[in-house]
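ok trying again, last paste got cut off:
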Amino acid sequence: MYNLLIGGAAGQGIDTTVAILEKLLKQSGYNVFTVRDFMSRVRGGHNFSLLRFGTEPIYSHSDSLDGIVALDEETIKEHKEQLKANGFILCDSKIPSSNSHVVSLGMDAMAKTLGNPRVSGSIAVGAVLKLFGESLDGLESVLGSVVKPQYLASNIKAVQQGYAAVENRFPHLQGKYSDRMLISGSKAVALGAIAAGLRFYAAYPMSPSTPVLETLASYADEAGIVVEQAEDEIAAINMAIGASYAGAMAMTGTSGGGFSLMVEALGLAGMAEIPVVVIDVQRPGPVTGLPTRTEQSDLKFVISASQGEFPRMVIALRNCMDAFNQTMRAFYLAEKYQIPIIILSDQYLGDATHTAEEFKPEQNQRVEPVDEYAEEGEYLRYKYTDSGISPRLIPGTSKHLVVIDSDEHDERGWITESAEVRVRMMDKRMKKLEGLKKELLEPDFIGSDSFDTLLIGWGSTWGPIEEAVRLLNKERQGHFAALVFGDVYPLPEKLLKEKAAQAKRIINVEQNATGQLAGLIREETGICCMESVLKYDGRQISGEEIADRIRKGEVQ
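nice, full thing came through this time. structure:
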């Protein structure tokens, strides 16, 4: 497995260089995982991508580098200490450096000779492929999918020149996964929504949730979806609720700051029992925070968002496959229980791309069409039932009047101030949790059955925790295991209680400052995490960092 960093300033073509490289490596049969670290500015600053590839399964990034492609001097200064002893630093010959690892090429001069100064990134691609012992097979088709036709020939020549300018340094790996997809977490969410039957999506662009909006907009005509860029997040969620009331499966998306504006309307969905799916792609807060970075600090917020009490579910996405399947499942559960479902992703998972097996939507449960109201007499939208789920009709599709209200109401949907009706209606709504809890998915168990130390995490820490457990068990065979939650609220408790009873040491691993999952677990079950590995600087924790901090006792 190899680890490569491509770094430079915004505007230097880092994204294009990475897109070409990861597609070529995927086509060669490798598993690929790419994570992006960028500043919230159009030009300048220090941006980089970490590209990991190999023949083993890859679920997270690494901080230990085999190579650095430095498009500016700052990249060398920032990352040279991460380089392995046999690693290389590929940079332009005009970047001053006395580092013995430097492979210096006149990339900018070569690009000018080719008549296009912007192809220096393609020269770097060719050099990287040669350094890692790769061929140029499939070059034209990959470049053709990334660059405009008028620039294709010059980019092909640029890659070829970069390839010829260096010598091979690393053994060639034989890949066998060329049939896999290369996809980001946010695109997987969008495709999961489409597969579930999404018909209406409204959102106001807010990083890092915007790729979900952009992906759905790109498929809107083909998939028969109305995609609306709303004037703000308040409008977006209210549009989605209105669309759902009218019979369209609906969704909205945002990040934490936008979700803050949505909370009153979330309560409307709870009171009116209107199904809606909301995705919060988290970034560090509060307020603007770090708009292009990652964090897991919205968990307790979304669990309790909006005043009053009503049933809801919170699902945290762990990887791309999970993003697709859990998004489909969110629609199924929202429609079945007539509740809001909140999906938690984050910048790390949303923007990262990696190879994944083909999605299988047919293996997921689908929403059944709303039944006709077969009972005699008056239609009661909020009829008391043992399950708490009342018969739902779509307005205008039958002879019945479909009445809803944001005030407390009776079975017909008429406003009431009756204490007795209030209690019965609250009990009816909260009964849905009894059925929902039976559908909860237990957390993923990773590691050895004979463990004595148990790591606990949720969402996008799944990949780093999986790697950390592997690394730690190489040193102390069988001592480590982990539970990583996808369904977070209501909290699945069966496997947690079973494994916690066996553990001599429980460590929660989270991307926030307060250990929000650990707090929820303690509140719901009385189980206490003894130590914490927390990271909240806006950068994703790696498996190596988790393992290293546990080895050194650098826990909280």
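cool. The first strand starts at residue 2 and ends at 10. The chain has a mean pLDDT of 94.
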